[in-house]
Amino acid sequence: MSETVQARWRSFEPTLAVWIAWVVLYGAYSMFIPREHGYDVGHYYIQNGWAALNDRFATDLAASEMHSFLNPAWNAFLWILIDNLPGRAVAFILGTIQALSLPALYYFTKRILKRLTGQAEPLVTLGLAILGFMSSMQALYAGSLITEGFYATVMITAFAMVMPTDRNQPGLKTLAITSVLIGLTVGLKLTNILYAIYFAIFVLILMPSWPLRLKAAVVCAVAGAGAILLTGGYWAWIMYQEFGNPIFPHFNHVFHSPEGPDGAFRDNRYLAGSSLEILWRPFVFLFGEKLHLNKALHDPRFILTYLAMFIGPVAVWILGRSRSAIANRTLLAFCVASLVTYLIWALTFSISRYLTVFWLMGPTIAVAMVRYIYPGLFSNKTGRLSVMAGAVLLIFTTSVPDIRRAEWKSWSEPYISAEIANPEKYENAIVAFTGDYPTAFLAPFLPETATFTSLVSPDWSRPALDNYRPRIRKLIETRDRPLYVAIVDLQDHFEVTLQRLLDLEGIHVETEQCETVKTSFERDDEIWRLCPAQVLAASPAENAS
Question: Quick one: how many helices (H) and strands (E) in the chain?
Fold first, then answer.
């Protein structure tokens, strides 16, 4: 390769046309890979969006269990796509949305390298962005309705926008725009409040004086709150009118809804058991620990971000006098904001996808940190080879999560499908989606005259609706309407669920009359069944009272 060609390649800067081509190509790639039909997709992503568009909230009773009460705005958008486009077209659109994280990563990498080291070579910048994009989390989201990848893209975009390379701090207009972006995601899904906190701490430390911090805080708070209301305010008002709790059933120890849980409720399955475990938690991703829907992840990118937030302040303390004020403040802001965000995540969620941004930024942060400490990293062959070896090691130590996917069978098939053999018999029936495996996605394929609810919730989520369940009990005891239960026949799940229905609800299922439902979720060992059922007795809770 001639020196001229090498020089052009090293100075290659992706243009808008290049990014458009990338987005289109990744969208096309998403049309060919199998669809992700994981737990949340089958449990509430489909039912939640369909229900909102068909005004089912006043008709059905917690069809997707506690997830029925989440803001359905984004899922409604997804259902519009699914209901009106062929499945592969939906996959294409989802792919283009996911592809946006690469240009976002590129500009984030470019700006933080420039601020920390004064240099952001295009080839290095692009390589780091690609390494971040190749994380196991992105493999999880490929061809998926799951939205955490999109929210992480918004977060990275906001980070990039508030790190100008031509001045010390961002302007108030930029802060308002980025706060709106973050606020819109919080309104769509409240777990994104984690990113709002991350962004707020970063901005406050980034600003060089207290008067500027005060102005930034006011602008960000007003713009962010307005955006939250824009995407989440209407649904919060509906929840408040119905239950007296705008985020029902969560934080009911604050709102005291009679139908909410008696105390604070949250998912405790993945929380650390001790302070030592909190410190060790990021390293579990080296060993395939399951911190998300029981799917193992082997990916050290999270650890790179985690280690940086401890090393960074020490590096600033030792080397700060010989580095620029912009570099010192930017690095300190990132490290402190990351540390606080990590601790909140570990203590509150510990669900891996809620902190997707840590995976995407890992390679960028690692190299930026090393170059802050050792500016001559790329000026000698040893340094360049070390970074390349690290990149190769990162790629080969990353695994694709083992998740449920469905192969495409034709170009015209829908993204989600379910064939009900005799739909007329479910007219005016009560259909309860039952057990620990998802069945609520069947709702759009059953008659509109049916009423949908849920029974036998998973143990971890059951307390959320303990005081709401009398509504469901009253519904299923309606004697002039037939009752059916939807259950997945998978290993011993079918038999266990039948027993739990009998023990917890006093419901007997007529298994000899079950109907098999052919779905796009189906595998050889997973079969969805609709079975007639009868209420034999009062529930154990009623007997106890």
Answer: 22, 9
Backbone dihedral region for residue 534 (phi beyond 0: left; psi -120 to 50: alpha; all else: beta): beta
Whether the pLDDT of residue 438 is over 50: the answer is yes
Alpha-carbon gap, residue 268 to 271, rounded angstroms: 5
Least Cα distance to 282 among 298, 297, 302, 299 occurs for: 302
Reported as a single tens digit per residue, the pLDDT across 457-489 is 888 899 999 999 999 999 999 888 999 999 999
Give the C-alpha separation, 416 to 442, whole Å. 9
3-state secondary structure of 290: strand
Q: Which residue has the higher pLDDT, 286 or 125?
A: 125
pLDDT digits (tens, 9 = 90+) for 335-381: 999 999 999 999 998 888 899 999 999 999 999 999 999 998 888 88
Residue 244, phi-psi category: left (phi > 0), alpha (psi -120 to 50), beta (remainder): left
Q: Which residue has the higher pLDDT, 235 or 283?
A: 235
pLDDT tens figures, 191-232: 999 999 999 999 999 999 999 999 999 999 999 999 999 999
User: Which residue has tokens 């027993």?
Assistant: 499
List the structure tokens of 218: 């006011």
Long-range contacts of 166-173 (CB under 8 A, 24+ apart): 168/208, 168/325, 168/326, 168/329, 169/206, 169/207, 169/208, 169/212, 170/203, 170/206, 172/215, 172/216, 172/219
Task: Write the CB contacts of 449 (distance below 8 Å, at least 6 apart in sequence).
Answer: 427, 428
Q: How is residue 31 annotated by DSSP? A: H
Q: How many residues belong to the chain? A: 545
CB 10 within 8 A of CB 79: no
Beta strands 507-509 and 515-519, pairing class: unpaired
Tell me if residue 246 falls in helix, strand or coil.
coil
Q: Which residue has the tokens 């007795």?
A: 537
For residue 478, how many other CB atoms are within 10 A of its CB?
Answer: 12
Let me know: does 226 contact 183? Beta carbons within 8 Å.
yes
- In angstroms, the CA 541 to CA 122 distance is 65
Cα angle for residues 416, 420, 422 (degrees, 5° grid): 165
Cα–Cα distance measured from residue 294 to residue 288, given in angstroms and rounded to the nearest whole number: 10
The pair of structure tokens assigned to 489 is 């026949």
Rounded CA-CA distance 406/169 in Å is 47
- Residue 85 CA to residue 413 CA, distance in Å, equals 9
Instruction: Please state, as a whole number, how many other Cβ atoms lie within 10 Å of the Cβ of residue 385.
Output: 10
**CA atoms within 13 A of residue 257's CA, in its CB half-sphere:** 24
Distance in angstroms (rounded) separating the CA atoms of residues 103 and 292 = 26
CA distance linking residue 2 with residue 424, whole number of Å: 73
Residue in 406, 355, 378 with CA at minimum distance from that of residue 194: 355
